[in-house]
Amino acid sequence: MEYPLVSNPILIFFIVLAIILLAPLLLNRLKIPHIIGMIVAGIAVGPFGFHVIDNDASFAIFGQVGLLYLMFLAAIEIDLFHLQRNLKRGLVFGLLTFLLPLVLGFLSAVYWLRTDLVTALLLASMYASHTLISYPVAVRYGITKAPAVLMAIVGTIVAVIGALLTLATAVNVHQNGDFSTPQILLLIGKLIAFCLGVTVIYRSMARWFLRRHNDRVTQFVFILALVFFAAWLAQAIGLEAVLGAFFAGLVLNRFVPNTSPLMARLEFVGNALFIPYFLIGVGMMIDIRVITQIPTLQMAGIMLGVAIVAKWLAAFISARIYGMERCDMQVMFGLTTAHTAVALAVVTVGVNFGLMDTAMLNGTVLMILLTCALAPMLTSGGAAKLKIRMLEQAPPVEADRVARTLVAIDNPMTAVSLMELAMMVHPRESDVDSLMAMHIRTDNSPSAKANSQAALQLAREASVTVDISVDAFERFDSDVASGLLHVISERDIDCVLMGLHRKISIIDTFFGTKMEKIIAGTNKMVVVSRLFNPLNTLRRIIVYLPPMAEYESGFRLWVTAMGRLARSLGSRLVFLCQPAQQRVISGVLRREHIEVRAGFRDMQQWDDFILMANRILDDDLLVVATARPGSLSHSAVLDEMPGFLQRYFTQTNLMIIFPEQSGRSEESMSFIDPTGSESINSPAWPRRIANFFGRLSHRRSRHIIPPESL
């Protein structure tokens, strides 16, 4: 027995880290995807190469974890809104990328390889499946929302499920001697029960846990525990573990926003350790000596030809059906070319039941190696062209500068939640230092300085985690409100985000004197928030618009911010507004290229909103767009809004928006740009009419929104 050159666990781990570090650096100069570098490095240091290290239990454990982590990340990074929009096309592609390899693989095994029907069915299930091993390439190019990528993901779900059912059928026929319909129906029933159970239980558990535990490490461990339990459960009922991990990622997707620190930690750990470990482990399983054997080469040539031709045909036909370009077809083909997870499961089953000989085993392993090497290169070539096309089709950058957002942090307890909210509503492609965090202190005592530094440090950490640049600073002033107003003028701030004032006495107002002074002292947009639940546990964002709100100059800014928030959370966005305002809102979202699940509910009178008090749930976010006195959309009913919110929404997640009243030049309103206005030059009669009808709206309206429709 040949022993490895290195057996010390510490040195083994160092070698693995060195491979993870150096392989991408060296191969990037050769324009070779680093995924191939990991596999090649695994071959070199493995037992069939220079035998530097052994393919021991650590690689078996970390490799399996890496494969499950890869499938989980592929699901957690999916934009569910775009996935739903491409679901039909993805199902068509999934059926093609499953059935074509299945049929071609079965026929080639029977007529070319001369196998029996059961072995042919096993090989057909291997051809039909694939693994998203090149998905990190799509992530690196930033094309994960492209229809081609989403179709490949849906196709993966269909192909893996179909391949597993085919594998179960082959095993069932081999064990029983004939096809057993009850056994197959039982497996399908287990699959349905698994999906329903994970969906219902995991959603409730995640929402309950994340509300009560804000520690990032605890949340990270909790999410991974759910993923690996789902993987084990799927394996226990006769499915494949990768299917369980992938489905768990789909269920937990909306609880892990893309801009959250939790997502950053999940991606970092997977891409830095577990996934490279899996790729190196795949390379260590490959025996390069089998390449010199003629039977193996013949077997691998047939298998590779069938696998590539079948997957290419599926991508080609789907692209032709939906009029997609060549780069889209290449991305779909590259993402669905690699065979690892189910292929290894098929080989294991075939060897254990004596259905595959040595040549077939080695040919399968060689096919896995070649497809894993080809997939990243194919995906990379198509992804580069697709990215260029997406950049060419992107909306032109406006001449206006990106809005500058200021987060006013009062204490360390609310610093993280306010920063997370700000990073979700602020554009990711914004200029450097356009997002700022500030703490104002009114004394120079050591405790005040420590409190200020602690709050700003938490704000910096929250931004660094998700790789967003934030300018965090403190200011000394005799008065908090005056200091904030000075900073707004000095730094030309467009939007101020701050926490809601807490009433401390019976004579205290809803906003507090400090906040009222800030609102009255600036015409810029001010957002006041009060969150009882974490953002990633919110299901709906319900936005109330007063009449004539669309004529305010800051209308487009805050509607766009709400669209970004809904897109980041994957939540449904519901606007309570008048019918005439719905077209304007749709125009803003369409112009800003914000695609979210947006709905509208008619609000004809103030009493309609009063009737909504008992329909706002604990996991909803109520957003009220109000107005300053003297603005175009201000009315008498808005003066009653603070008392109404205090009376009926004391335990509701709340956000109050004071839109920008004037100060930014807007074009005149048109069907192309329905948000353009000049509020300074607007006539006074619309405001007077609105105020008049506001005073008359005291009787209850019969126009009631059914609870099930909201």
Keywords summarizing the entry:
3 domains, 10-stranded mixed β-sheet, elongated, alpha/beta, Na+/H+ antiporter like fold, 26 helices, Rossmann fold, 710 residues, disordered C terminus
Number of structural domains: 3
Overall SS class: alpha/beta
What is the β-strand count? 10
Mean pLDDT: 80
Largest sheet: 10 strands, mixed
| CA gyration radius, whole angstroms | 29 Å
The CATH topology assignment of the largest domain is Na+/H+ antiporter like fold
Helix content class: 55-70%
What is the terminal-to-terminal distance?
69 Å
Please report which band the strand proportion falls in: under 5%, 5-15%, 15-25%, 25-35%, 35-45% or over 45%. 5-15%
CATH architecture of the largest domain: Up-down Bundle
DSSP helix count? 26
Q: Any idea of the CATH class of the largest domain?
A: Mainly Alpha
**What are the low-pLDDT stretches, counting only 5+ consecutive residues below 50?**
663-709
